[in-house]
Amino acid sequence: MDKNFQEEQFTGIMKFTPPLYKQRYQFIKDLVGKYKPKKVADLGCADCTLLWMLKFCSCIEVLAGLDICASVMKEKMHRLSPLPVDYLQPAERSLTVTLHHGSVAHKDPCMLGFDLVTCIELIEHLEESELKKFPEVVFGFMAPSIVVISTPNSEFNPLLPGVTLFRHPDHKFEWNRAQFQSWALETARCYDYSVEFTGVGHPPTGMENVGFCTQIGVFVRKYPQTSESAQSEKPTEAVYKTVFKAVYPSLKDEKYLQNAVVSEVIFRAQIIKRSLLDCLMSEHEEYNDDPTERKSKFQPSMNCFSEDLGKLVVEKSMGPFVDGNMVYIPLKTIFSFPKVNRLCGTFEKLCKLIAGKVTLSSDGSAVMLNTEHENEEN
Amino acid sequence: MRRRGWAEPRLRSEALAACSARRAAAFDGAAMEPPRPFRLPGPGPAPAPPGRLRGFPTRAQRLPQPGPPEPRPSLAPLSTLLCGLGLGERPCPSLEAGDWPLGRGTTSAVEALAWPGPAVEDDDDKGAAAALPTRGRILLRGRGDVLPGPPGRDAAVLSHGKPHTAAARALCPPGPRPSLPPAPTPGTPPAVGRPAPGTKPAAKGTTLAVGLNSVKIHCQNEAVYQYHVTFSPEVECRSVRFAMLKEHRAVTGDVTAFDGSILYLPILLPQPVSLKAQRRSDGEEIAITIQLTKVLEPSSDLCIPFYNVVFRRVMRILDMKLVGRNFFEPAQASILQHYRLQIWPGYSVSIRKKDGGLFLLVDAIHKVIRSDSVLNFMHTIYKQSLSSFQDECTKQLVGNVVITRYNNRTYRIDDIDWNKTPRDSFTLASGEEITFVDYYSKAYGITIRELDQPLLIHRPREKQMPDGKRRLDMVLLVPELTFMTGVPEMKKDSRMVKDVMREMLQSPRQHYERLTSLLRRIKDSPEASEELMRWGLSLDRDIHRTQGRVLPMERINLRHSSFIPAEDLSWNKEVTREASISTIAMNYWLLVYPKRLQDLAKDLVAAMESVCGPIGMHVSRPAVVELKDDRIETYAKSIRSVLGSEDKVQLLVCIISTSREDLYGAIKKLCCVQSPVPSQVINAQSLTGQLGKMRSVVQKVLLQMNCKLGGELWGVDIPLKQLMVIGMDVYHCRSKGMRSVIGFVASMNHVLTKWYSRVVFQMPHQEIADSLRLCLADALQHFHEMNHCLPKKIVVYRDGVSDSQLDTVLKYEIPQMQKCFNTFENYQPSMVVMVVQKQISTNFYTLTAEQFVSPPPGTVIDHTVTSSDWQDFFLLAHHSRQGCSIPTRYICVLNTANLSCEHLQRLTFKLCHLYWNWPGTVRVPAPCKYAHKLAFLSGQVLHHEPSAQLCDKLFFL
User: Fold this and answer.
1) How confident is the model at residue A115 (pLDDT cuts 50, 70, 90)?
2) Are B483 and A88 inside 8 Å of each other by CB?
3) In this predicted structure, what is the pLDDT of residue B244?
4) Is A267 in the same domain as A370?
């Protein structure tokens, strides 16, 4: 389960590149890339390496890990925490990572509603009694859209030096392809899943008949989950113990959304202000006429900040202008920037988010910036 | 208590505060000083008690310090060369003079706060990260400054440490093993359980109840058991050994600290323990023997490393994020939207063994971090300066610490590779070639948007890995994926700094509340408390409270009077109204300014003439050089030609229109290296901002000029005779591979008002070699010329030494200096070497009726939180208007002069009064501050040794 590395490291003859465990994880990552599940659970997550890899997949919003050994999970669980930098630029998606301590032979409602459940090198560690309950828990109770199960292919073992009985002392069994496939087909039939077989770790040339080193079954539920009715019958008693939970900062959270919007609004406003003042200065120098010109409403020509405004057409009436030592940048102008637009969605949302955080003109239609501030910064 | 009634009205210090806050104040050091000492305030300063007793204006007490003869050379040749300057009496417009754009002074405080200690490198990080996740693993590669002493070195530590035995009393001959004789006076810090210092009869000064930012740790267990673990046959791989031992948790228990051979457990195992394990690689059976080697006190030095690992885990349980070596809470960030900055509150924590037992040292800190990626930052630079974009980027980025978005590492940027892009490839550990774009996409699912950005270079410090692995010699980083920490250089002088400071300011009360809130969180989290209890550790509920001592006030001596300063220990009013100890008449000086500043120049001269009288200074009219523009070449050419043709110029004063580093540098290079003459650069732009302050500003400039000319401003009573005080500090260049610069300053008279200075450039990692010996020999030679004798006692204040470098000072620097005594016949002076540490995390508050305020200047702590290995004390010499005061730590590493701890404290405090750029006490002894200024000027501006002709003047002020 967690000793894949050694397994590959010391085989001598059979050396996989990349290491087999990485190939298994990559297989899952590819699957996630293909099906874009939102909620993924890894049963037998061990030191959480797979979960750590999956947290970078932007489609996933809920990640859960389950293991029978709490200490092995705890050892490296902190790498599942958000990084400090995640707070600087919160992601758009939300992400919650939870680790549970418990057995795959028990049902717990926290495992309901998942799109993908992975069991990488798990089943061979199960006692016979646990293995018996396993299909009911995973396929019957959790009933995710997709289940991935990987397990050693014992036909490959003769190619692995030093392996006498099993690849790892904790393995309770190791199946050949026929054994795994018959178990898988039976399980799939029983719970209305279809199953396809594949694997990772190609056999050496001339030995193709032994099959993959790791055999993998991908189970896909045949019918979409009908309704909540199926779940409502299910027991709600929690038996797993939560050992870790991390909620990532996300723009779905109002607090971070507000920060992001305010930051973007001020950033845009400052850029517009700067180009406006630059225009003003150059015109001022050109004509050098009476200073009242400064007070007059000044409409910058597009080339002044076309770079920043892009292809937006700013109506003259709502363009930014300078009055005294204040620069007014209409919110409409700011809203027309794609990033602001994308963040807020609606103009009303923009107004709501920046209320009290950005200095606005008396009628609330424009952002006000002081021109003097600018001088200081340059 | 002792100073009630001696306070002064706020007026004066406000004037100073206003000056110092500006980017260029008249005293360059004046502005340097105040921002540093405080840890940033909350509300305003405590109201100063009213009234002020002017101290003892006894003329008779003035020091026998005859002023040097004042040369009065003829003005004629110069004035014929240069046009005169009409000096009309005009109302002073706002004027502020400045020698140097002092944004730096302010920002260094920000940096220090944001990033205490040297920039953390990835390797430090790695050590921590590697040690953290694995329960029961010892952080072996301990940091010297975190660990009081690596295991096995304790014997060595004892030999030079605080004398525990009478054997250590013997005075040391020159050599690497000096010891400190226990002083006969009660000032010596004894071990644990010392009665309050105030109760000792001879201890001078008043006692004061103080709170420390340390929390006492109680050890509940009786002992920690140290075992030796042997594997037979030998198992080479450490991780395999870890795994094998881990399989026997049933025997060892869950709570272990194991480094591969030494195992620490909180429990006693029945002896002997023999276990078996199977090596998975070849199936070989390995016999494991666990042999008890020692029963340790739970507070043993050997336990400190893994206690710290445990405590880091506690911080993680509280959901704090490790950045570098400190913990932060980004979720609690304050956001400065206008500057695109975030300020993260956090803590620096470490468990250390002190004289008073085991303590958790906690400090409430902040981290400033840009919410923009480095790439965005580069875009901003690009928009501002197209032409010099690459230079500007290099200037602003190199030396900064960045944090990456995909892992939690921090790196210092050493260079930028403009020829590489993320499309270039590098070699993975597996030998596979991969482009940066593909790598980040594959490993972290990150899509790099801009494919044409350059890459940042980080060069890890050369270090040998314990397992002999070769380290990467270069790390390339993608700007888009990195974020800058600290305040960017270009904005350092703007109002941003003020805003950032305001965000970070903490009053002593706020600081205290943050500490107690951490303690509460640990207590309230069962998991966190449990983590500590696994090793039997429990924390006090509150910070540690003890007694400090306030040293007696020092008398300040001027030419005709002396006085006891006010409570906040500043004496601006006195020094600007009364004659300095000695003044040099300015008979022959040059004033250089661009034509458009001619009015300002006139005002300046007028102001100088009007304020010079009270100071006791004579200012003649200058010879002026009016420049047609303010280009650097114009300045340089004119100055060069004037100085080339005239060798009688005493002082060169330059007015520059804006704070331009390049121009400042050019002038200083001319005047300090090529044609040595004391020089004063005054920034006109900063002058014009201040209304009605011209007079006070010019007063300060004039005092500063007097120092540069060789005059003496004020002194304190120095009872030690035939004494030489030396200050040393090091300047390190921001970019790596550059030479560092050592400033060396030695006193030349017994009242410590004459100074001799030298500068030494050295390559990185180079030992100080012969240079130090030569410096000292020259200083002694000079001393002899001036006094016709050699000093009998030499006290060295060495700044810029971390805990881990103390041994270097002891083994290399001190013997070198002692070697130099042989140059003189029959010369065996006694010597004291004090290491000065400013960047420390210890601080204290006064506790008066549950009110937390900064203690008064002169507060000393020499017990409880002092080191068990060295003789050290904490002295808070300065007064800070805002925030928490951070004391300075002094470590006495050599004392053959039989000076008691109390004597050293008082001498140190006296020296803190003598920095002439600030009419008040400063954080460090004046010679250190002078050495710092000198090293900074030489390293940052001159890049060259200043001319030897200036060695007897404070030209670097």
Assistant:
1) very high
2) yes
3) 87
4) yes
Q: What is the pTM of this model?
A: 0.74
- Of A213, A247, A281, the last residue of a domain is A247
Chain segment A280-306, per-residue pLDDT in tens: 777 655 554 444 444 444 444 444 444
Which range has the worst mean pLDDT, A159-163, A175-179, B218-222?
A159-163
Taking an 8 Å cut-off on Cβ atoms, the answer to whether A376 and B278 are in contact is: no
Among B134, B335, B367, B527, most A C-beta atoms within 10 A, so best to mutate, is: B335
Domain match, A265 and A358 both: yes
Share of chain A above pLDDT 90, in %: 40
> Do A221 and A287 fall into the same domain?
no
Minimal Cβ distance to A6: which of B281, B338, B443: B281
Say if residues B392 and B381 touch (Cβ distance below 8 Å): yes
Q: Tell me which residue of A192, A199, A114, A115 sits closest to A151, measured CA to CA.
A: A199
For residues A341 and A236, membership in a common domain is answered with no
Which residues 6+ apart lie within 8 Å of B641 measured at CB? none
Kindly state whether residues A279 and A191 are assigned to the same domain.
no
Nearest-neighbour CA in chain B from A85: distance (Å): 5
- Which tokens is B957 given? 């002020």
- The catalytic position among B124, B799, B813, B902 is B799
Q: Give the domain CATH number at A155.
A: 3.40.50.150
pLDDT at A186: 94
Query: What's the domain count of chain A?
Result: 2
- Min Cα distance A225 → chain B (Å) is 30
Q: Nearest-CA residue of chain B relative to A262? A: B337
Q: Given this model, what pLDDT does residue B115 score? A: 32
| Closest CB to A87 among B333, B338, B444 | B333
**B499 catalytically annotated:** no
Q: What is the pLDDT of residue B686?
A: 66
**Residues of chain B under the 70 pLDDT cut:** 1-204, 281, 462-472, 488-494, 686-687, 689-692, 734-738, 764-770, 848-850
Which residues of B fall within a CB distance of 8 Å from A164? 283
The reply to whether A27 and A154 lie within a common domain is yes
Cβ-contact B349, B306 below 8 angstroms: no
At B380, is the secondary structure helix, strand, or coil?
helix
Using a CB-CB distance cutoff of 8 angstroms, which residues of chain A are in contact with residue B281? Answer: 6, 9-10, 162
- Give the active site residue among B124, B301, B729, B902: B729
- If interface means Cβ-Cβ distance under 8 Å, which residues of chain A face chain B? 3, 6, 9-10, 17-18, 56-58, 71, 74-76, 78-79, 81-89, 162, 164, 169, 249, 259, 262-263, 266-267, 270, 357-358, 373, 376-378
Q: Is the per-residue pLDDT at A184 higher than 90?
A: yes
Q: Residues 6 or more apart from B914 whose CB is under 8 A from it?
A: B714, B715, B716, B752, B753, B925, B926
Catalytic (active site) residue B28: no
> Tokens standing for A206?
């001339």
Considering the domain architecture, whether residues A145 and A231 belong to the same structural domain is answered as yes
* Per-residue model confidence (pLDDT) at position A180: 95
Alpha-carbon distances, residue B638 vs B596, B597, B663, B683 (angstroms): 16, 16, 13, 18
DSSP codes joined into one string, B203-267: --SEEEEEEESEEEEEE-SS-EEEEEEEEES----HHHHHHHHHTTHHHH-S--EE-SSEEEESS
Residue B738's pLDDT is what? 65
Per-residue model confidence as pLDDT tens digits over B35-54: 333 343 333 333 333 333 33
Q: What residues of B are in contact with residue A374 (Cβ under 8 Å)?
A: none
Which domain range does residue A282 map to? 254-377
A232 and A292, same domain (yes or no)? no
Residue B370: list chain A partners with CB under 8 A. 88
Q: Which of these three, A179, A212, A247, is where a domain ends?
A: A247
For residue B167, the 8-state DSSP code is G
Whether B799 sits among the annotated catalytic residues: the reply is yes
* Token pair in block for residue B547: 């007694």
Q: Is B729 an active-site residue?
A: yes
- Across the interface, whether the CB atoms of A376 and B340 are under 8 A apart is answered no
